[in-house]
Write a structure and sequence with these properties.
By secondary structure, this protein is an alpha+beta fold. Helix content is 44%, strand content 12%. It is built from 12 helices and 11 strands. A hairpin with a 5-residue loop joins strand 9 and strand 10. Helix 4 runs parallel beside helix 9 and helix 8 crosses helix 11. It is globular and about 55 Å long. The termini are far apart. The relative contact order is 0.13. The structure holds 2-acetamido-2-deoxy-1-O-phosphono-alpha-D-glucopyranose (GN1) and magnesium ion (MG). The site of magnesium ion has 5 residues, from loops.
Length: 362
């Protein structure tokens, strides 16, 4: 743990938020790739989540917090149990939704939602069904949201922008790694046109922009411990306007993978069609009502698009010298790349069946 996050500093930071009770502990939680996350315990009735938001990834954290506040306010008004079915931001003592530490860090707090569980691998179709229903519900609750939202990360799922970054990375070859990656680079280039053609449908308005979560991997959903239902979408940092297809794609990338996204044994990586079917059944039950024809038509392609984007982003970070994602070992981004390449190949093989499944559910 870096010294900037030492126990005393963390307690002082926790103390600068309007918490009920006195802080009794601040401990690291989970292993997100982007932010540093902690759990705050107090002698009061609640626990809290403390996060140091990543200032390299998010250029305008105040705008990001405004997005999260607006979206959670909207959801809160519509659900039965607002303290459990959406995130509740806790203001800092000055009334804003973040605290600045002397080293320039941006810190935020929200309520910890008790009696919930998260997963890294879905395991059962029932869980995939519940996860699909959860994201479908999240999108449906926001389908009448009309307030402006800031773009928290420029060009997040925008393939034209991603290729511009990609071309620049290859040219710069900062870590001197590009020469050793002919197969991976050919994998990306061989799909460039296909992916740009899909993105064009968003650019020209064929596929509408709505409010999307944009980071719907399985571990970003809280499941209710008692009922097993998907309760609450967390990690709202990337809530922005975009196509809801990104959410379906990113979810399938994690729920329907037979293994973890960075499994180094690529023979274990494949798309599970039973999980795909279950997720889509849950998702379409909740989202079917607001989707238009173009979204339905391109629904089955979404996982291929997002998995491709992920291959590109992991490989680009490897080429850049691992500056974006947290890594656990030196080749981690390359292993992630290859593991996601195996997943995309499996999706390409299963694409006709994926299309059939969606057609059968609509
Ligand atoms: C990051 O924030 P986290 O760890 O849930 C990333 C996603 C990637 C994901 C890959 C803001 O998600 O886009 O899909 O890692 N988030 C950001 O696991 O870049
Ligand atoms: Mg995130």
């Amino acid at each position: 743990m870096p010294s900037r996050n030492d126990a005393e500093t963390l307690r002082a930071i926790a103390g600068s938020f309007s918490l009920e009770g006195r802080v009794t502990g601040v401990e690291p939680l989970g292993d997100g790739f982007i932010n540093d996350t902690f759990i705050i315990t107090t002698d009061g009735p609640r626990r809290y989540i403390l996060q140091r938001k990543n200032g390299n990834v998010f250029q305008d954290i105040p705008a990001m917090m405004d997005n999260i506040a607006a979206v959670t306010r909207h959801i809160r008004k519509k659900v039965r149990d607002p303290l459990r079915e959406t995130l509740t931001l806790v203001p800092a003592n000055d009334g804003g939704y973040f605290h600045r530490s002397p080293d320039g860090g941006f810190w935020t707090v929200c309520l910890f939602i008790e009696d919930t569980v998260t997963f890294d691998v879905a395991g059962t179709p029932e869980l995939a069904f519940q996860g699909g229903a959860g994201i479908g519900r999240f999108q449906a609750l926001l389908s009448d949201f009309t307030l402006p939202l800031s773009d928290t990360i420029k060009g997040f799922h925008d393939m034209r922008w991603r290729f511009r970054q990609w071309d620049a990375s290859l040219r710069a070859d900062k870590a001197g790694r590009a020469g050793g990656l002919p197969e991976e680079i050919a994998f990306i280039e061989g799909r460039r046109q296909e992916m740009l053609d899909f993105w064009k449908l968003i650019e020209d308005g064929t596929i509408p922009k709505r409010v999307a979560h944009n980071d719907t991997k399985l571990s970003n959903i809280l499941f209710d411990r008692a009922s097993g239902r998907a309760l609450c979408a967390i990690d709202l940092d990337t809530v922005m306007r975009g196509t809801v297809l990104s959410d379906v794609g990113d979810a399938i990338r994690s729920y329907a993978n037979n293994t973890a996204e960075d499994d180094p044994d690529y023979s274990r990586v494949w798309l599970r069609l039973d999980m795909y079917e279950a997720y889509m059944r849950g998702y379409l039950r909740e989202a079917g009502g607001f989707l238009d024809e173009a979204e339905k038509r391109w629904m089955a392609f979404a996982p291929l698009y997002i998995t491709f984007e992920q291959v590109l982003r992991f490989l680009m970070d490897h080429i850049d010298g691992d500056s974006y994602y947290k890594t656990k070992y030196p080749e981690h981004n390359l292993v992630r790349t290859r593991s996601q390449m195996a997943l995309l190949r499996s999706m390409e093989d299963s694409y006709p069946q994926m299309q059939e499944i969606v057609a059968g559910l609509l």
